[in-house]
Amino acid sequence: MQKSRILGFIACTAIIGCGLALATAEQTRPKNQLPVPGAQAQPGKPLPSQASAEQNKIVVRRVFDELFNQGRYEGISQIYASNCQVHTRNRTQGLQEAVSEGKGWRSAAPDLVMTPHQMSVQGDIVMVSWTARGTHTGRGNDLAKPTGKPFVIHGSSRFRMANGKIAEVWNDWDRNELYRQIGVSPKVGQLYEAGQDLWAAVTRFFSGHDDDAGESAQPSR
Q1: What are the E-state strand segments in 50-195?
Q2: What is the rounded distance in angstroms from the CA atom of residue 141 to the CA atom of residue 93?
């Protein structure tokens, strides 16, 4: 009997000692110290690749919201890389030439609205399908005589991103369809493009730059 009481006392003492040790450890642990999971993402926080994709979408959306729809060009250096190339069918333009042509479309159709629809990301490429609506009531890009006719054009663009900016663009849309809708001969557009290409070539020659050098291959869809 005496031996059982002694064993029970020893067991109780051990349990109390363990409890005191755990309590002391809890009190000495810094209150703001939390367990850090190994490679798990925080709930609700996107992984770095997802964050980059969303940021690239934001940059591309500025092309439609600011440049085409609002006619605001002060943010171009934030949106495009300075050596950006723009490919439309078999034509390649430097950034300055492409921006100048974009301004010309807004001059020809001051009510121009370009709506981006489906936008997806594959690697460093942002792909956008879009619709352009407007009325030919102004002058621009050699469309000298306004016809007052509306137009609706569907197209798509692919933007290659580098360091958070647009480094290259591929546009796919039917320019002849635009001329047909506004009642302008496609020859006017062909003459305009030829004149712009000639002027661009002369400018590159005298400036010592060749924007078309090292033209990139089209990215896979």
Answers
A1: 80-88, 91-94, 113-122, 125-135, 150-162, 165-172
A2: 15
Residues 6+ apart with CB under 8 A from 166: 59, 60, 63, 79, 80, 81, 84, 159, 160
Can you spell out the DSSP letters for 2-25?
Answer: HHHHHHHHHHHHHHHHHHHHHHHH
Cα 185 to Cα 53, 141, 149, 172: the distances in Å are: 41, 13, 14, 20
What tokens were used for 105?
A: 């479309």
The CA distance from 79 to 208, in Å, is 25
Task: Give the type of residue at 58.
Answer: I
Tens digit of each residue's pLDDT (9 = 90 or more) over 100-123: 999 999 999 999 999 999 999 999
92's torsion region: left (phi>0), alpha (psi -120 to 50) or beta? beta
Lowest mean pLDDT of 15-19, 114-118, 148-152, 191-195, name the range. Answer: 15-19
Helix ranges restricted to H, 109-171: none
